[in-house]
Q: What sequence folds into this?
């Protein structure tokens, strides 16, 4: 079945720096790649997604890039702010209405 | 955020108890999901329902029994659980035409004593 690996597991940056989280997957048939943000004690929330026919997508300070050949995709957060501190999960479509999630990255942004 | 609601938010139960978790979505979605979230582990998909029909059972032990009476409601019936079942149980829903866009509820924090 589909296998999703996410790195790093923890990431600490200074406010204003950039943060990059990377995920790799195994099933070349996967065609949808969302990222979720989960703040402490709250639900996971979809923050950005990308489909296999697109290489990059941006939404203000966040962007996702996809390399289908290498089977990896990354989340980029620029000009990080303390409110960006959370756990970020990547996911990959893995069948009819199924998402396979990565293990998560705990991002800490220090003022 | 009231699109997907879950009750109760916290639950403590003994191993011999029977309890149920409830999920309700107000988004007009047609698919609903149960996930288990344990510390330092990926979100684990448990069950998927499409139009009230179960389409996925991810090798979940029979002590977890889902029920989906209609497209807006999803239950997870629990009985004779083990301490290792303690986790956050998340419900999600997705629209028919964008099945991968999943919207999560706030979760039920379950502790099995």
A:
């Amino acid at each position: 079945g589909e296998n999703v690996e996410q790195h790093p597991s923890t990431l600490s940056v200074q406010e204003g720096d950039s943060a990059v989280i990377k995920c790799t997957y195994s099933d070349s048939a996967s065609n949808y790649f969302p990222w979720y943000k989960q703040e402490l004690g709250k639900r996971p929330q979809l923050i950005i997604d990308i489909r296999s026919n697109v290489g990059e997508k941006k939404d203000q300070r966040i962007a996702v890039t996809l390399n289908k050949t290498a089977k990896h995709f990354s989340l980029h957060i620029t000009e990080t702010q303390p409110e960006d501190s959370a756990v970020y999960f990547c996911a990959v479509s893995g069948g009819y209405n199924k998402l396979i999630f990565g293990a998560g990255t705990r991002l800490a942004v220090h003022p | 955020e009231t699109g997907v609601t879950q009750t109760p938010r916290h639950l403590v139960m003994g191993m011999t108890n029977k309890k149920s978790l409830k999920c309700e979505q107000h988004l007009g979605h047609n698919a609903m999901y149960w996930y288990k979230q344990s510390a330092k582990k990926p979100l684990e998909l448990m069950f998927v329902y499409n139009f009230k029909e179960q389409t996925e059972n991810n090798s979940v032990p029979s002590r977890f029994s889902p029920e989906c009476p209609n497209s807006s409601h999803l239950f997870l019936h629990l009985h004779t659980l083990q301490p290792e079942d303690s986790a956050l149980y998340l419900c999600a829903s997705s629209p028919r035409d964008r099945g991968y866009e999943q919207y999560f509820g706030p979760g039920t924090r379950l502790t099995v004593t």
User: Anything to note?
Assistant: Chain B touches chain A at residues 1, 4, 31, 40-43, 45, 48, 50, 55-56, 90, 94, 99-107 (CB under 8 Å). Residues 46 and 58 of chain B are 5 Å apart (CA to CA). Chain B has a mean pLDDT of 92.
